[in-house]
Structures are given as C-alpha cells and as structure tokens.
Amino acid sequence: MPRWLPRAMVLALALYACFLLGDWAFHQLVGLLVNILLAFFLALAIEPAVGRMAARGMRRGIATFLVFFGVLAVGIGFVVLLGSMLAGQIVDMVENFPKYLDSVINWINETFHTELSRVEVQDSVLKSDWLQKYVQNSASGVLDVSATVLGGLFRLLTIFLFAFYFAADGPRLRRSLCSVLPPERQAEVLRAWEIAVDKTGGYLYSRGLMALISGVAHFVLLEILDVPYAPALAVWVGLVSQFIPTIGTYLAGALPMLIAFTVNPWYALWVLGFVVVYQQFENYVLQPKLTSKTVDIHPAVAFGSVIAGTALLGAVGALIAIPAVATLQAFLGAYVKRYDVTDDPRVHGHRRYGEAVVARLQKALHPKKESSEESGDD
C-alpha cells in the first residue's frame, strides 16, 4: 500500500465529515439566517429616515428607536382596528345566525316541499359525529396554535432586534466591512450599499403611496355601498394588496366581498368588479409612473423575481425579491458597457409583414435566375 493512501483516505473522510457537519449546521441555522436577511432589508428601508434624523444632530440609537416606535405603533393600531372589526362582525353574525338559518330552511321547504324545522336541524348537527370529532381536534390543537403564535412573536422580536442593531450601528458596520477590503473594493461596497438603501427605500415608498391611494379608492366605494367597517377594510385592502406580492390583491379583496355579501349579495359583485378594474388601472397606469423613478424594474422581471424568491425563501423571499433584484440590476448597470443602437426600422417593429414576404420570394427566385443565366452561357 502506498504511504500517501492512508493519509488521503483520512483526509477524504475528514472533508466528508466537515461537509456533513456544515450541512447540518446550515439546516439548523437557516431560520436564523432568513431572519437576519429580512432584518437587513428592514434596516435598509429605515436607513433614510434614521440618516436624516442623525444629520440634524440626533443620536442614531435614539433616531432608530423613534422610527421603530412609529412603525410598531402603526402596526399595533392596524391589528387592533382589524381585530375589533372582525370581532364585531363575528358577534353580529352569531346573533343573526338564527335568522339566516330560518331563511335558509324556509327556502328549502318552499323549493323542495319539505317540512324541516330549526330545532331538528340544530339537534342533528349537535349530535353528529363529525362535530364531536371537530371539537376534540380543536381542543387538542389549542397548544399547537399557542406554540405557533409564540414562535411567530419570537421571530418578529428577533427580526426587529437585528434590524435595530443594523440601523443604529450602520456606520460602524460599514467601517468594519470595509476594513478587511482593499481601497478599490471599499468604494464598490459602499456604492452597492447606497444603491441598496435607495432601491429598498424607494420600493417601500412607492408601495406605501400605492397603498394609500388604493385604501382611499376602496374606502369611497365601501362608503357609497354603506358597508360596515369601511375604514378598517380600506386599510386592509391597501396594505395587503401592496405588501403581499402576487396573491395580495385576491386576499385583500376577499374580506370586503365577504362583509359586503352579508349586507347585500349584489354589493359583493360590485366590490369584485371594482377590485378587478382598479387592479388593471394600478398595473398599467399608476404603478409604472410611481416606480419608474424609485425601483425602475420591468413588470415581467418583477414577477419572475417574486416567483424565484418564493421558491427559494417562501414568503420572505417574495417580500424582498423586488428590492433585491432592483439593487442588483442598478449595481450591474454601472459596469455594463452600452452602445448606441442603429437607426433601423426593425428596432421599432416598423417592418411590415408584406415586405418580409416579398423579400423571401425574391430570395427564393434568385437561384432560378442564376441557373437560367448559366444555361444561356453554355
């Protein structure tokens, strides 16, 4: 046996063990890494506000605390407002449930000539096996729901804590990062950091402005239809439709449609039609004008980035995909050499189909002319 073979085998086993250890550690820490990534983008989003307050003489720690306090106050106010709306709506539905049940039973009796009564329906439902199993499963699942809620609160606290440190110690963090890089690389890192701050802040600014416009538009519609809890529903539609990519519009419109249906079924159709029409107005008129100077990313690229981010990191990836791709696009745009485009009509798509057909026919007949000339020379 060669002398180097045992050492090579030991080295290969050691490398394989290190790979397994690294893979295990990565899968154990992937949740923490995702939280840190989300906290980093949150810190980039509030960096302009913190920087302006710090430029006026306020300490960065206090400025960061004030910004986070404002964000938390708005978030808690929204949750309380939405929770009170849902609680009141649930109480109203429970109180009016006997009336709804009587109307349904009367419609069934008149349509199918039956003799059902509310007491019989209630007894059959309460004594059914599926209801007892549902109650047992719900009782056993209370602990799981509580653990999920506590886990979500702990994750939210972790994200806010890291984001606070990233924002409050932003200059120190940039200085530490640049200290391990040569001077020419330091300028590129600082440039990328500045672009990321601009694009992330611009993305949130444009989304916030579109959420405000969407909320006002839906509030006017809900007030005209006299739908209850119109302010809370307008805030819900504005925030959910803008800050949850791809499916946010459908999630946002479902709740107003449901509450409008309890008032009048035709109102739900009006809400659905307005949501569809406004979404088209937002996609083709409002969004391009607002995002052209902030994010400046093509809608197809934005849609693809959201799909890719969702596949990689789930909901977090969908949320940070657009500012991340916009930052990468702007950073690479500074290093890609561009040339002047020739003044060719085909660039603008002005070439007509008839001209292309004529050119193909001439090209097809040209060899026949050459063959006839060669035969004449012979």
Textual characterization of the structure:
The protein is an all-alpha fold. Helices cover 85% and strands 0% of the residues. It is built from 13 helices and no strands. The protein has helices spanning 4-55, 60-112, 118-126, 129-140, 142-168, 170-178, 183-224, 230-243, 248-263, 265-291, 299-313, 315-333, 353-377. The radius of gyration is 31 Å and the shape is extended. The chain starts with a helix and ends with a helix. The mean pLDDT is 77.
How is this structure best summarized?
It is built from 13 helices and no strands. With 378 residues, it is an all-alpha fold. The longest helix has 53 residues, at 60-112.
Indicate the topology.
Blueprint: H1 4-55, H2 60-112, H3 118-126, H4 129-140, H5 142-168, H6 170-178, H7 183-224, H8 230-243, H9 248-263, H10 265-291, H11 299-313, H12 315-333, H13 353-377
How helix-rich are the residues, as a percent range? over 70%
Quaternary state of the chains? single chain
Strand content: under 5%
Query: Termini, distance in Å?
Result: 81 Å
**What is the gyration radius calculated from CA atoms?**
31 Å
Structural class, please? mainly alpha
Mean pLDDT: 77
Contiguous uncertain segments of 5+ residues: none
Q: Describe the largest sheet.
A: none
Q: N-to-C SSE series?
A: HHHHHHHHHHHHH
Shape estimate: extended
Number of strands: 0
Count of alpha/pi helices: 13
